[in-house]
Amino acid sequence: MVSGEMLSIVIFTIIIGVAVLSLENALLRPVKLLLSAIQEVCMTVVKWSMLLVPIAVFGLMAQLTSSVGLSSLSGLTYYVGVVLLGLLLLVIFYLGLIVLLGKKNPLHFLKKIRDVQLLAFSTTSSAAVMPLSLKTAEEELKVDKTISNFIIPIGATVNMDGTALYQTITTLFIAQAYGLEMSLLNIIVVIVTIVAASIGTPAIPGGGVVILASVLGSVGIPAEGIIIIIGVERLLGMFRTAVNVTGDLTACMVFNRFYGKTPILVSEKTDNKSISKQ
Q1: What is each CA distance from 54 to 4, 73, 240, in whole angstroms?
Q2: How far apart are CA 262 and CA 19, in angstroms?
Q3: Of 245, 276, 17, 249, which is closest to residue 121 (Cα–Cα)?
Q4: What is the per-residue DSSP string for 187-234?
Q5: For the CA atoms of 24, 29, 30, 36, what is the dihedral angle to 10 degrees?
Q6: What is the residue-level pLDDT of the chain in tens, covering all 278 positions?
């Protein structure tokens, strides 16, 4: 942790997590309370930090621009376009899953989850959208309640596909801005690290930036480079949060097709019971 090796930290925490879950309930409860308290303290510090971001960005961006030059800022529009294109391709992939595995019309799916996407876009928080996601899955998409109650809360924490894509592109962009060449092996290590780290990304606005700073430090890229993209981070955060919740609802549709209780089966069971009683 002191040296900032993010991939090693992720692997270590996975091992510790499995070991903690193997404890007896009497020992597991205080450990969970302690870890929950530590997480709340960390999230409080992150929220305080985000309040200072507008002031800090002005000073640090002026310093960075003077040292790196305006060339790092000229490609910012291209960077935003690449991120948005990647997120669009991810949504298309989700719609393909809806057609192939969910056996549903993708346009009808998008129409029914429109309110969830708009709320995610405005709040940039998967956790804040969770109640509406549950309601939409159960009432609009007709997903079995047991499936939606299982997938959506986990997806709000674990399913950060849009965030992982954004962090990977951002890492490569910042490396190029500093003139650092990354080999194919380094890029693969970065992707694996980011995907693993995104699982623990806090579902709050700007939470992905905190994880991104750790990833940059672990691969030898100056974490100060985040200042280059911090001006557009909020806008990209809106889009990637909408993509994340779309992925959660896509998973609900796929799982519901294979494991959900269909209304037909329920009605058939009811008819069989009534016939046996008669």
Answers
A1: 26, 18, 21
A2: 38
A3: 245
A4: HHHHHHHHHHHHTT--SSTTHHHHHHHHHHHHTT--GGGHHHHHHHHH
A5: 130
A6: 666 666 677 788 888 888 888 888 888 888 888 888 988 887 788 778 767 766 766 776 676 666 656 665 667 778 888 999 999 999 999 999 998 888 888 888 888 888 888 888 887 777 778 888 888 888 888 888 888 888 888 877 777 888 888 888 888 888 887 777 777 888 888 888 777 777 666 656 666 677 777 777 777 777 777 777 777 777 788 888 889 889 889 988 988 888 876 543 344 444 444 444 44
Residues with Cβ within 8 Å of residue 149, at least 6 apart in sequence: 134
Please tell me the distance from the alpha carbon of residue 11 to that of residue 13, in angstroms, as a whole number: 6
Length of the chain: 278
CA–centroid distance for 242 within its chain = 10
Which 3 state secondary structure label does DSSP give 160?
coil
Is 160 in contact with 204 (CB distance < 8 Å)? no
Q: Give the start-to-end residue ranges of the domains of the chain.
A: 6-263
Phi first, then psi, for residue 143 (nearest 5°) are -85, 140
- Superfamily in which the 6-263 domain is placed by CATH: Sodium:dicarboxylate symporter (1.10.3860.10)
- Which tokens hold the place of 96? 């393909």
Distance CA(40)–CA(42), nearest Å, equals 5
Give the C-alpha separation, 6 to 204, whole Å.
21
User: CA–CA separation, 88 vs 104, rounded Å?
Assistant: 20
Helix-then-strand count for the chain, H and E: 13, 0
Pairwise CA distance, residues 3 & 138, whole Å: 46
Joined together, the tokens standing for residue 91 give: 């949504």
